[in-house]
Amino acid sequence: MASMEQSRPAQRGNNLDDVRRNNLAIVLGLAHVRGRVSRAEVTKMTGLNRSTVGGLVAELVDLGLVDEQEPDAANHAGRPSAIIVPRADIVAIAVNPEVDAVTIGLVSLSGQVLKRIRYDTARVPTPEEVVNIVGAVVAGMRGELDSSFRTVGVGVAVPGLVRESGGEVVVAPHLDWHNVPFSAMLSDALDLPVVSSNDASAAISAESTFGAGRGARQHIYLNGGASGIGGGIVINNELFPGVSGFAGEFGHSLVNSEGSLCHCGAYGCLETEVRQSALLAVLGLDAADSEQLENVLLAQFARPEGAEPQVAELVNKQLTFLAEALRGTVNIFNPELVILGGFLGLLYAAAPEVLESGVRDRALMGPRGDVRFARAELGLDLLMIGAAQLAFAPVLADPASITKSLLKSS
Amino acid sequence: MASMEQSRPAQRGNNLDDVRRNNLAIVLGLAHVRGRVSRAEVTKMTGLNRSTVGGLVAELVDLGLVDEQEPDAANHAGRPSAIIVPRADIVAIAVNPEVDAVTIGLVSLSGQVLKRIRYDTARVPTPEEVVNIVGAVVAGMRGELDSSFRTVGVGVAVPGLVRESGGEVVVAPHLDWHNVPFSAMLSDALDLPVVSSNDASAAISAESTFGAGRGARQHIYLNGGASGIGGGIVINNELFPGVSGFAGEFGHSLVNSEGSLCHCGAYGCLETEVRQSALLAVLGLDAADSEQLENVLLAQFARPEGAEPQVAELVNKQLTFLAEALRGTVNIFNPELVILGGFLGLLYAAAPEVLESGVRDRALMGPRGDVRFARAELGLDLLMIGAAQLAFAPVLADPASITKSLLKSS
DNA sequence: GCAATATGTTCTTACTCAGAACTTATTTAT
DNA sequence: ATAAATAAGTTCTGAGTAAGAACATATTGC
Questions:
Q1: Whole-prediction pTM value?
Q2: Hey, which residues 235-264 in chain A have their CB within 8 Å of chain B?
Q3: Which B residues 84-143 touch A at CB under 8 Å?
Q4: What are the pLDDT digits (tens) for B131-153?
Q5: Domains A16-86 and A215-375 equal at CATH topology level
Q6: For the stretch B387-404, what's the b/e string if a residue is b when 16 or more beta carbons lie within 10 angstroms of its beta carbon?
């Protein structure tokens, strides 16, 4: 029997529907990412004929996804071009369950967080409790939602591992959730489509689209938190998943062969040598004070006499280890941009030149030439925007689909 | 003045020509990569209607790029489906200038090396000498080329840095070439289109498409040679270039904080700790004997009593350093496959379990789960196929373009 | 031999974008 | 002020695409 391989979906062929869908998605995506864009700009950027762009915009207006506004004051000859903006009444509900609270937000298609409600819980919430809390909050907003908004769906940023298709939470260690079909549970309760994903992935997607990554097609992101260092790789504006969705674990790069044992089983990982707890300790803060870390640390470095010696020394040491990890990564990826979030962003903000020269002096000529560094920009809104992006994604990929999915609520 | 950003070509809109071009490219690409594919398989894999596939295949046949063959013996009910094969008379000329020779090959669209000529040079050849040598060899084949083949162009694998557009050799250190417009020079001499690129990139592209990477959409490749360790990252069957084309420098990952100074300025790089020269030395070979390395080393490990202690120890040490570099890379990329070429492939072949367990024991649970290792498969043909791929690439991307480009020679 | 199955072939249809021609709105030159 | 130049919106036509229906063909299995 001839070995007839099981046909993987290889590359799919294009048909005319794909063309229209793709072009609609491109125009809506430009409006979504940039907030406002003129038809003339769309024409230039896409290379499409202006009659085609006219038709695409008209369809998006018909679908209720964008508005056309008066042109900006023109500063050149020629008829001014109308401005396309995403409609502010297209919204997604963002949900982020944590160990001590559930945060729920209302986010518009333009990326604005219209509402954010933090519901503190006495103990670590179960999936059912989260569903009930979200259900109650959404019920409270329902009147407003139905009268003033069109809700495309719900996005959930879960601190754990989520199966890509189906939205099952495989494991969320801090919540102690295991194999929870959370998307289905919440969708049943709210009668809205629900998309769940890992919180770090959602954060990267938000920071990439609306934060420091704006405009860079390709970058890497490292985030430092209380529990360690994670990250992600963005290529062509998409988070690179790896073969099974685990790509981006920058925390376990070797930075010190003489270093201490990491919980991963290796010695001298970045995550082991560069820790938020060490930073808190040297500043006399404890774990509960992590929100003050930024002010306290940056205040020290802003003083005329500089930081206290042992603080400066620790920051310097940690930045040197971070630079060691980054030089390897820069050599491998040749990235355009490295974004640093959490306490890694703080370290960078405290002494940017230490990191930059640390990487530049040791990376290879070619790759180091074009790399830029930036601190993550999105603060409290990060996870709300990231979760909302999950819910907007299907609409952004296929704008015409909104007609069907919103039939019941329109 | 409103900040009207310079319009990057962002995402291009799809028009109807794009659809046809893309679909033709998909069908030709399937035939090219798989060697033979039935129309029914194409229909399944692309999702296109079978009448559409019929039209696409007919156009490729008209263009002279593929033939349709008798169906294979069917083993199921239904009309047998014709087999599409790339035409063997569509060829590219492959060129690889080195310090002591110029190798020229004739490669068919199906990936077969029809001819390989190694022209030894008394000294390091200048660009002009390479053009003359290639010109003479091609002149010798010209009668055959014109009568029996259609030549799509020339691909050159250069041991140096090549500017992506224009084919200028920025610098080729071992050849001592600097800012040489080599593609233009060779194209003028041969009256054929010429595409030049870095030899390592070409090798990766070949190994990825026709070698150990066949079927893996995503993998990383590390190659060990006399002068060091290079590599590449393949994502969605394309070599990931990074922002300026330097991505893939795996040779300068930290593997030993106590290691020696690398020429890159850092200490303890993979390239410094794992060297072909050390392997040659312990086996009593000198640099000129590098071709014997494979036989001598593998023979030792094939002996019933195993390798000599100091050889086994060195191999073990080098594999441990390689595993250290790979565990970090596996954590970051979560790759499906790691391909090892050159002497790194040899080390792996000598003691595969040392590398595999070395990586698996120290990488994180998630990423290490799905990773496979493989030794590069393509031997002498590697650079010939890689260089030819450069010349085929434009035709594979836009099959209909062959009509125009081959007018003069048809 | 006949039914079932799978594929190739032909023709029609719906839909898409490009482009030409015209209209509208602004700046710049006279 | 007025006209010319410039740039973009609008409308309509046309070329080209893939899908799908209907039919033709070639194989397996009963």
A1: 0.89
A2: 235, 240-258, 264
A3: none
A4: 999 999 999 999 989 899 999 99
A5: no
A6: bbbbbbbbbbebbbebee
